[in-house]
Every structure is written in structure tokens, then in C-alpha cells.
Amino acid sequence: MFRTGFKKIIYLLHLWLGLASGLVVFVIGLTGAIYSFSDELKAVVYHDRLYVIVPQSSKQHSFDQLLLVAQKKLGKDKKISRVEIQQAPDRAYMFRAYKAGQYFEKVYLNPYTAQIVFHEDANKEFFNVVLSIHRTLLLGDIVGHFIIRWSVVCFVILLLSGIVLWWPKKWKMSIWQQKLKVKWSAKPKRLNYDLHQVLGFYAFLVMLIISITGLMWSFDLVADKKVKVVSDTTSLIRPTPNERILAKIKSFEIKPFYLLYNLPSTKSGTVNVSAYLDPHRIHQKVQYRFDQYSGKLLLKGKSFSSLTMSDQVKALNYDLHTGSILGFWGKLLVCITGLVTASLPITGFLIWFWQKKKVRNH
User: 109-158, pLDDT tens digit by residue?
Assistant: First the structure.
């Protein structure tokens, strides 16, 4: 009696949380699946803006010259805050200007000719729209994040309650086979039920990892501890050329695949540079902070291997969420899991709908 009553409570919890969050879970799963291979797809779809022809001389314009060209294109009211510098010789430089709720634009430049390859309104770019739907449903940071956050909390409870409901009462081989296989020849109702419980079981662990890592962001549990470091404004001299800072980074004993160069937003702000050591796994990076006036290195972040266990877990959050920690196969697993996640609210709703219809007919 206890077990039956307990499972009935779990079933009702599973049902109503599923009905309440199903639509949002469907959107999150589908957009996550689409975005999982965004980098690979961009390299094909946006090849003309991401790649350039390397001339025989292979001499690039200085970073500061390129920055002036990009800033002129955007205008003085849209200040460039970040530059992506790929280290491969055939890659364009990407300059980004962003202000929440106002503009999000990118300028791609050929570093050899200083010519503008492409000017992008990132707010309308397909993959960024998909990512924005995934994060906020296009409802803004406050409302959108709130809905996404608590829908994912509901989904975690749905996953755990689903396993309880799936778990067989008796450990018989015939029952296990029924629980682990989809009967493709069955009628629609039975097939739908099998798809819901069998796919849900196989994808359970990956869905749980993706959900928890997503919640780590949503509840701001992975943010780095900020060390108070500022530029020396006592002399208020002209900022050091960015080229000098880049030269310093090149002199360090690292071989980055690309750099994220963050320009200071205030007079006392620092130049923050993230050197990514692996093209696919962002946890493999070293961060630097420089005085914007003297160019002096103020702070060097720790490499992944030297972080504490808790900080390593935080650093791995993105790569676990996207599957990139396992390379191509990890991304494929996340993509398939996203599609399974999107299917569960549909098959779950149909189970409820057909059961409700059956009760009415009786």
C-alpha cells in the first residue's frame, strides 16, 4: 500500500510539473540540439566572413590599426569591448560592440588588408537568435531567465520522478526487456508510451548533467572570484598600444589557438585577455589582466591543472553542458539528447491526453 500510494504521489507530481513546464522544456531541448554544432556549422555557412586568403607577404596590420578601422565602421557611440583573435593565419579578426538591450554588432576584418569582410547585426544572426531563445525565450534577462531557470528545476524533478515511475517492481528479465526496448510494431498509444519511458531512461544521465550544468549558470554558481585589480590612473597617461600587450602574451610559454581580448570600459579598468589553449574545450585557458596605461601584467590566472577541485568543476561546466569535453562525439550525444528532451513533453502530453480521453469515454 505504501509503495502504491508513494508512486501515485510521484505520478501526480510528474504529471503536473510536466504539463506546467512542458512547452519550455520542448523549446530548450530543441534549441540546445540546434546549437550543439553551431561552431562547425558557422565554419561552413559563414566561411566567407571567418576566413581570409593569406597573401605571400603574410604581414598583418597592427592590432591598433585594425581596431581603428572597426571602430570607425561601428561609429563612436558603439564602443568595441571585445576582439576575437584567432591564431591561425587564415582567420579574420572579429571586433564586437555590445550593450544589453541596445545593440550587438560584430565587424570582421582581414588582418592583412585591413578591409572589412563583414558587418553583422548579431541580434539577428541565426545562431545567436537560437541561443537567445535557449537562454531567455527572447523575453529579456529578467523574465526569460526566471522562466528558463524554474522550468529546468521542474525538469530535474521530472527526471528523478520519471526514474522512480520507470523502475520495475520485480527484477524479471521479461520486465527488463519490456522497459528497455521500444516495441516499434505496437499501436500508436503503446509506441508513444515506449518512446517516452525508454528514451527517457537511456538519456536520463546526460539530461541530468546538462540540466544541472545549466542551473549552475542560471543561479550564478560558476562565476569566478573577482580579484580587485585596477589600472594606475595617477598619471593618466595615454593608454599603452594594445600591440605591446599582445607581444607580451606571445612571449609567454603558451601556444593559444585563439585570444579573447577584452578592452577596458572605465579609466581604471584593465585589459583582460583569455588565452584558449584548446580549440574546442574552453576550460583549457589562461587569463591575464594588464594595466591599460603601462601595459604591466597585473594578474595571471591559474591553468586548469593548478586549480582546486571545486574550481575545476566550475571550469568544466560549459564543456560538460555542451558535450565538447568529449569532442565531436560528446557534441553528437548532446544533440541527440536535446532532441530526446524535446520529444518527452510531446509523448508525455499524449499519454495524459489519451488516458484522460479514455476516462471520459468510460
Answer: 999 999 999 999 999 999 999 999 999 999 999 999 999 999 999 999 99
- Residue by residue, DSSP assigns 208-262 as HHHHHHHHHHHTT-SPPPPP------SS-PPPPPHHHHHHHHHHSS---SEEEEE
Residue 103, number of CB atoms within 10 A of its CB: 15
CA pair distance 142, 136, nearest whole angstrom: 8
* CA quadruple 47, 53, 59, 65: dihedral sign: negative
Distances (CA, A) of 135 to 139, 153, 235: 9, 14, 43
* Placement of cell 588582418 in the chain: 111
Read off the C-alpha cell for 32.
540546445
The residue among 166, 141, 128 whose CA lies nearest residue 344 is: 166
- Looking at residue 330, its amino acid is G
Whats the size of the chain, residue-wise? 362
Helix axes of 204-218 and 188-202: crossing angle, nearest 10 degrees: 60
Question: pLDDT tens for residues 273-297?
Answer: 999 999 889 999 999 999 999 999 9
pLDDT digits (tens, 9 = 90+) for 201-229: 999 999 999 999 999 999 988 877 778 89
